[in-house]
Amino acid sequence: MLLRIEDIDPTRCRPAFEQAILEDLAWLGISWEQPVRRQSEHLAEYRAALERLQGMGLVYPSFESRAEIARLVAQRDADGAWPRDPDGAPLYPGAGTALSEARRQELMASGAPYALRLDMEAAVARAGRLAWDEHGAGPSGETGTVEARPGAWGDVILARKETPTSYHLSVVIDDALQGVTEVVRGQDLFHATSVHRLLQALLGLSPPVYRHHQLIRDVQGQKLSKSTQATGLRTLRAEGVSPTEIRHRIGVV
């Protein structure tokens, strides 16, 4: 097993959080190969992949703030429901692709904040039809050979001015560089696999096999989350719950 610390956002990822992860896993009796890969130590590798996509003409900067995007979405919704991605977030509604190269360079040189987005239509046209090998199941029971539908995500963000990568980009680079052959993760990432297959195809990376599993949910049917004050593993430990009890709770006997 490999352990990867996804700490590309320094404002949200703190050493204390990483230490808590290590302690919780060790308490559960889980061990992993060394060294641990920390994404913050490999930004140059993600930047190189981004530059390859830029060289293909598949990346462009957008300069709208989150507030401006929300306003544009509200305007689009007034004319009929603006499309949402599989996670429920509205697709990018801005005009980044319409800006001239000269105007883009002017704005970037001025220090304006920006996000680097994948031109989804051009990327899909270049990659063609894609699929992945699913050994688990999607939220609706999808299994076996699953057709990738990256277009449902719109022009996803691959990096920002202050961060040369995103989850989508860094995870496929990490998987390839670490020789990952099987990815086991929750069904909340099932649909995002379409974006990952697209990036793998564009960058010439071999796809792993995927196994998406069901999530542990609360009594309302929502996945456990800090934002809903769900009970964390550390709290359960403090209450005297044993590792064996945790495994029974999640169905691992």
Automatic annotation (TrEMBL):
Residue ranges constituting the Glutamyl/glutaminyl-tRNA synthetase class Ib catalytic domain according to the UniProt record: 1-243
GO cellular component: cytosol
Keyword Ligase: yes
GO molecular function, a single term: ATP binding
Protein biosynthesis among keywords: yes
Entries under Pfam families matching the protein: tRNA-synt_1c (PF00749)
Coiled-coil residue windows: none
InterPro entries, alphabetized: Glu/Gln-tRNA-synth_Ib_cat-dom, GluQ/Sye, Rossmann-like_a/b/a_fold
Keywords, alphabetical: Aminoacyl-tRNA synthetase, ATP-binding, Ligase, Nucleotide-binding, Protein biosynthesis
GO biological process terms held by the UniProt record: glutamyl-tRNA aminoacylation
Source domain of life: Bacteria
Sequence similarity: Belongs to the class-I aminoacyl-tRNA synthetase family.
Protein name, UniProt field: Putative glutamyl-tRNA synthetase
